[in-house]
Amino acid sequence: MALPSPPPARVFAELLPAPAAAPASAPAPSGREVHVSGSAELSAGPDRARVSLRLGSRKEAAGAARSSVARRLEYIAQSARQRGVPEENMTVTEDFSRVENTYQMEAEVCIIFSDFGKMQNVCNLLIEKLGTSVTISPPHFYHTPEAVDTLRRQVCVAAVGNTRQKAQEVCRLFGQSLGKPLLIREEETKEWGGHIDSHLLNSPDSLTLQERIQNATAYASCRVFAVFEIKGRENRRNKLL
């Protein structure tokens, strides 16, 4: 999915002669304004990853099936804890059933990681130590609500900063000095997800780790309209600075 092109900039400046000076006790606004619109676009990679691990055992004795799974569950939890994963980020669900003349114990462990390097270390260790007795699903990357809110704030602030800089450059072009903001209005915001090459869409399991992160990256754009006061001719000393 191609990124949308930013909207064209709009600048309206009113550079009329300033009115006669008002008495010191009642200062009057100059009435001169510069109208500017500007935009910004930012992206944020996912800040969380969820990995699911499945394991099971089928034995003639119920206790043997339970203990086989319990030993591996304890090893998984211990390996994650030793690498800084808090207990509250691990969820275990178990299912015990009778299959023909045997007992079947199945379990699933969901681990949430905020450090993707630790995630890879844990998964690599479990594959090495437990082998085919555990099935590890590809990581699911996502954003927490706090990360999305941060992206929204940052893109809005960036758009306002770009708009102010544009207004300042327009004023300097005419030898004027930019004054205080009289109006700042958010006109449009957009949010969209990442994209991957079309030939990978039919085989999501074949995506590399970086492709999965790219696919989960969030994008946001913001366009604002602002009105600034024009103070008058720019001080020559300030221009030299």
Automatic annotation (TrEMBL):
<dbReference type="GO" id="GO:0035591">
    <property type="term" value="F:signaling adaptor activity"/>
</dbReference>
<dbReference type="GO" id="GO:0043123">
    <property type="term" value="P:positive regulation of canonical NF-kappaB signal transduction"/>
</dbReference>
<dbReference type="GO" id="GO:0006955">
    <property type="term" value="P:immune response"/>
</dbReference>
<protein>
    <submittedName>
        <fullName>Interleukin 1 receptor associated kinase 1 binding protein 1</fullName>
    </submittedName>
</protein>
<dbReference type="Pfam" id="PF04402">
    <property type="entry name" value="SIMPL"/>
</dbReference>
<feature type="compositionally biased region" description="Low complexity">
    <location>
        <begin position="21"/>
        <end position="30"/>
    </location>
</feature>
<dbReference type="GO" id="GO:0005634">
    <property type="term" value="C:nucleus"/>
</dbReference>
<dbReference type="GO" id="GO:0005737">
    <property type="term" value="C:cytoplasm"/>
</dbReference>
<feature type="region of interest" description="Disordered">
    <location>
        <begin position="21"/>
        <end position="43"/>
    </location>
</feature>
<dbReference type="InterPro" id="IPR030312">
    <property type="entry name" value="IRAK1BP1"/>
</dbReference>
<dbReference type="InterPro" id="IPR007497">
    <property type="entry name" value="SIMPL/DUF541"/>
</dbReference>
<keyword id="KW-0963">Cytoplasm</keyword>
<comment type="similarity">
    <text>Belongs to the IRAK1BP1 family.</text>
</comment>
<keyword id="KW-0539">Nucleus</keyword>
